[in-house]
Amino acid sequence: MGALQKSLKTRHITMISIGGVIGTGLFVGTGKNILSTGPAAVISYAIACLLIVLIMQMVGEMASGEIVLGKKSGGSAELGSFASYAGKYIGPWAGFTVGWLYWASWVFIVGLEAALIGGMLHNWFPMIPTWLGSVGITLLMTIVNIYSVKSFGEFEYWLSFVKVTAIIVFLVVGIAMILGIWPNYEPKGIGILTEFGGFAPNGIVPIFTAIVFVIFSICGAEVAAIAAAESENPARNIVRAIRNVVFRLGLFFVGSVAIMVLIIPWNDSKMLAAPYANILTMAGLPIAAQLIQIVIFISLISVLNSALYTSSRMLLEMSRQGDAPKIFSQIKNRRGVPVPAVIGSTVVAYICAMLYFISPEVIFYFLGNCVGGLMIAVYIFIAISQIRFRRYYDKVSNEPLSIRMWLFPYLSYVTIGILTVVYLCQALIESLRSQFYLSTFVLIGSVVLFMIMRKLSTKPAEQIEEKLASE
């Protein structure tokens, strides 16, 4: 079957954990969320970031605990695998459901990012067809992932470096503008938060429904936890990756949105169409819009690269658990890369990209919110797994955990409650209702599929037993 190689360096994991959450959702979707929610979008982002922090803390606790319990095989991708935790502590049906939902979400993201990359390349170079740019970039990232996990890590390191640098520049300039120390700009003051219809002009419900899209924007924090399994020091690096989440989410997401609503009126659709570029332009920085477009392009490639890596590792783990065809558990090259899993994820991603071209104006937000709904479902399973894991761990081990969930079990239950409310809130908004039904249908369908597959797999054995008994 082969084994994954621990060839990722600590610096790779560190930068992936810092830049992993900075994707196109932050650059493209933030303005739309502010338009629908008002200045209260800050609350949406704060709640979403807090939920992700709590989920990552749970993942870190389970990963560190699994190491202590001696249930890990050296270099196994099971470290940080949400499917394996759900399968062990809830039941095989939960492991099957979490694994396939998580894999499907990331494969959707690969297809969406590929389509958007193709569109940007076509806008810059009209002689390149959109489909060709999409296929070409995806093929390039597939080659990077197939060559070695180290090549993935190095590629992602520099892409994340560019994204982090761009966000830091934006934050510094934005804070200086708000404080009135940036030349040639007159700050509007805190009154801008209530001047145009109030802090939450569209009510409370949009605050919760916006969390769905925000979670879709933030998803990626888990990549560092999964990648830590292939690093030179998995136990140390997964702890470091988890602890980096709190700072980076609060700074990059909540900080960015706070700057936007303090500089741009929430109902200014023209300015919020490209808030990063427009704020930097207001600051008098040359070619700001062009530079932000380049950063967005780099972010698209980065997310595609990470999504392909994550989906392939989840498919590998699912295959090893018996929930996916055995061919995907094979590691075909001497650098420890699960080539069949990478190729399998790529093929499905191409299908998703084709769906994008059928309806380019709708499919991004439709699938985006659907993926957000599926991610929320996965996070609920993770929280339930953590509660059951912790109770089991406390019974069998007295060794302290390097990462512990705060205020256990109360905060774990609160997290499940909030995630459930956010998920159900999708049904209250007409524009999100179809996404709610779709994600719910996929969730229920995956459980039913598991039951059918389990029934079919046990039927031959029962027939053999009956035949032997009759003889």
* CATH T-level topology: Amino acid/polyamine transporter I
Q: Structural class, from helix and strand content?
A: mainly alpha
Please report the total strand number as a whole number. Answer: 0
CATH class label? Mainly Alpha
Which overall shape is indicated by the principal axes computed on the Cα atoms?
Answer: globular
CATH architecture: Up-down Bundle
Biggest pleated-sheet summary: none
Number of domains: 1
Distinct helical segment count = 17
pLDDT under 50 segments (min length 5)?
72-78, 460-469
The arrangement of helices and strands along the chain is HHHHHHHHHHHHHHHHH
Strand content: under 5%
**How far apart, in Å, are the first and last alpha carbons?**
39 Å
The CATH H-level superfamily is: Amino acid/polyamine transporter I
How much helicity do the residues have? over 70%
Tell me the radius of gyration: 23 Å
Mean pLDDT: 82
Describe the structure.
74% of the residues lie in helices and 0% in strands. With 471 residues, it is mostly helical. It has a single domain (10-460), classed as Up-down Bundle (Amino acid/polyamine transporter I). The two termini are 39 Å apart. Residues 72-78 and 460-469 have low confidence and may be disordered.
